[in-house]
Amino acid sequence: MCSLSWIRSDKSVQLFFNRDEYYSRAAASLPVMLENGHVQALMPIDPVGGGSWMCVNNHGLAIFLLNNYEISTLNDQKYRSRGLLVKSLGLSGTLEQVVQNIKSEDFPQYAPLTLCAFDCHKEYIWGWDGAVLRKQNPDGFIASSSLRPKEVIAERKALFDAARSNPDQLRRLHTLHSDDPEVGFCVHREGAGTRNYSEITLTTKQVTLDHAAGAPCETALLSYHLKRVA
Ligand SMILES: [Zn+2]
C-alpha cells in the first residue's frame, strides 16, 4: 500500500508520496544524509530492511519504491530487501546513471516492485514482476494495495484525476480519508495505515523535502533543503 502522485510545470516537479505499512513494523528513522563523493542524499531508513522507500539528492534526483502486491510470490523464497535498491540508486548523479545502475542490478533477488526515478525534467518508471523488468509510462499517479489491489487502485486513480491539475488539491488528496479505509489516500485500517508522508519539489536550483513521520492528517511536516549541484 502506497500512493505516489506528481505534477510538472516548467523545469520543476512536485511529488507527493504516502507510505502505507503495517503498524507492527518498526518505525523508520527521520531522513538522514548519506554521502558518496559529491552526491548527498536524504532518505529515511527502515530499520527492518536497512534501506528506504524514498530518497532525494543534491543532484536533483528523487527515487521511490512501491511494492507490487498484485503478483504473488513464493512464501519460502528469501528476497533481498527492496529498500536497498533505493539506498544505492539514490546515490546516483544523474537519471542516466540511474538507468545504467539499474541495468547492472540482479533483479531476481527482489520481490515484485515498482521503481521510480525523477529529475525536474522527466521520469523513468520500471515494473519488476519477478521475471521481467519493464519500463512503464504512468500518467502522474502510481499506487499499490495489498487488499483488492485492482479495485482500490482504480478508485484512487479516479480521485487523483479529479485533483491532478493543482498541487494544493494533490496535497490535500494525500491527507483524505474515505468510507472505504483502503480507498482514501490516508489509510487508517486495522493493523496497517499511512506511516509516512513526503512532499518533494525538484527544480533546476533546489531540492526540497517536507516529511511527516506519521499520517499526514495528524503529523507536522519537517522541511529539508538541498542546494542543487550543477
Ligand atoms: Zn489520516
Profile the largest sheet.
7 strands, antiparallel
User: Which regions contain 5 or more consecutive residues with pLDDT less than 50?
Assistant: none
Structure class? alpha+beta
The average pLDDT score comes to 93
Per DSSP, the total helix count is 4
Quantity of strands, as a count: 14
Please tell me what the overall shape is. globular
CATH class: Alpha Beta
CATH architect. name: 4-Layer Sandwich
What order do the helices and strands follow?
A: EEEEEEHHEEEEHHEEEE
Bound small molecules, which ones? Answer: zinc ion
Alpha carbon gap, first and last residue: 35 Å
Give the tally of structural domains. 1
The residue fraction in helices comes out at 10-25%
> What is the radius of gyration computed over CA atoms, rounded to a whole number of angstroms?
16 Å
CATH topology: Penicillin V Acylase, Chain A
CATH superfamily: Penicillin V Acylase, Chain A
Q: Which percent range describes the beta-strand content?
A: 35-45%
Can you give a write-up of this model?
- With 230 residues, this protein is of the alpha+beta class.
- It has one domain: Penicillin V Acylase, Chain A.
- It contains four helices and 14 strands.
- It has helices spanning 83-89, 95-103, 149-163, 167-173; strands at 2-9, 12-22, 32-36, 39-43, 54-57, 62-67, 113-118, 123-128, 133-136, 141-144, 188-189, 192-203, 206-212, 222-227.
- The strands form two sheets. Strands 1, 2, 10, 11, 12, 13 and 14 form a seven-stranded antiparallel β-sheet that branches. Strands 3-4-5-6-7-8-9 form a seven-stranded antiparallel β-sheet, covered by helices on one side.
- The longest helix is centred in the C-terminal third of the chain and has 15 residues, at 149-163.
- The radius of gyration is 16 Å and the shape is globular.
- It starts with a strand and ends with a strand.
- The model has no long low-confidence stretch (mean pLDDT 93).
- The structure holds zinc ion.
- The site of zinc ion (ZN) has 5 residues, from loops.
